[in-house]
Design a protein that fits this description.
Elements lengths: L15 H9 L10 E3 L12 E5 L6 E5 L5 E2 L1 H8 L5 H18 L15 E7 L4 H8 L5 H6 L2 E12 L5 E6 L5 E4 L5 E5 L8 E3 L16 E5 L2 H8 L6 E4 L10 H8 L4 E5 L4 H14 L2 E2 L8 H8 L1 H15 L1
Parallel strand pairs: 11-12, 11-13, 13-14
Antiparallel strand pairs: 1-2, 2-3, 3-4, 5-6, 6-7, 6-8, 8-9, 9-10
Helix pairs in contact: 1-2, 2-3, 9-10
Amino acid sequence: MISTKHIISDLSDVPREWVFENYLNLKEKLTGQDVKILSAFNSKDKVPSMCIYTDTISGYYKFKDFSSGIQGDSIELVKALYNMPTRANAVNKILSDYEDFLANNTFFEKREFKIHDKFKVVDHEIRHWNTIDQQYWTKFKIGSKLLEHYNVLPLQYFTMKKKDIDGNILLFKFERPYTYGYFRNDGSLYKVYMPKNSDKKFIKVQNYVQGLDQISYEKDYLIITSSLKDLMVFQKLKIANAECIAPDSENTMISETIISKLSKKYKSIIILFDNDEPGIKAAERYKHKYNFSYVVLPMEKDLSDSIEKHGVDKVRGILLPLLKQAL
């Protein structure tokens, strides 16, 4: 008699936590918490940049790898790990591998699953500019007028809050130099920037396409840079017929709704991201999805670092022909 005890024919019979634990060899069991690990797609990753997290809408685990830009659900994970052409291929592998797992294990442990709250910025206080702020920003040729125009302000502190699984409220107040708030025109905080914090330079407060409040829609060309800092230093190049925006990060795609609106306003849109592997891969995704040309500046890692080291005139002399070639 052929046993069908461990034949799995429906993906709904496979716990999503098992997929992540099995294929990523996680050291901890997933019970609703977020986990951060070294990239499974970038062997050069030295600081954990891959997040496994619970999606707030579905309640299921998903992943986002900031090093490579790859993200999605459990099926996308397996599809990407094994370079499979379709999601159906990934599903078949998951079903087969889970059958093998059950054949060698009595069962997959059922656990109490609790969605863990995430820390959120709930309070902040703006302070006055000081000498160290001036020294930091002016090395990128960014002065007070640009900072004011893009609503960048120094922070005395910011407070983060979350409720733990036992119902206790956790509050942490961060007060340190080189801390800046990025604000919208309406005064709402959308990001905290800590350039001297090696562990976490950015804390996103809300979704926002940076620079969207400032563009005039009267220029011929739109440049999508990798960050607000690059966006600001681009202004120093004095390229009169172009203006800039920046996504939350290189690995966050600007939505089709916004891109559709922007495409109607400009003759051309060009991507100018970092010249490292993640930046080029992110630019390729924009090219694949929106058919935008991209430019790789062969200098320092990004535009602001290039201006800091080589100066405005030299960067402009190299970048301008590349932009013209991309049109």
